[in-house]
Amino acid sequence: MLGRVDAIAGDLQVLRYLADSEGRTGSVKILPKPLAMVPRYISVPKLRAEKAERLQAAYEKLKRDGTIDAIVRRWER
Q1: Which letter, b or e, does each residue of 10-46 get, where b requires 16 or more Cβ atoms within 10 Å of its Cβ?
Q2: pTM for this structure?
Q3: What one-character DSSP code corresponds to residue 25?
Q4: Cα separations (Å) of 59 from 14, 46, 47, 48?
Q5: Is the pLDDT reported for residue 55 higher than 90?
């Protein structure tokens, strides 16, 4: 963004946030095809197994009803 780099590979949302927070959104071009789609993970302490089960159930419901896919499509723009 300072004119010293021709290309950078990174997480789309992180790079967009950094460009926006630096006021450089106009000088950054994001290519249409990602190099890779990388899954994200979270961990929950073993002592919170009940919360982990509730989180897993909620995730599965959102995946099943199409909410997760809709969110991903919205972020891919």
Answers
A1: eeeeeeeebbeeeeeeeeeeeeeeeeeeeeeeeeeee
A2: 0.53
A3: G
A4: 23, 18, 20, 17
A5: yes
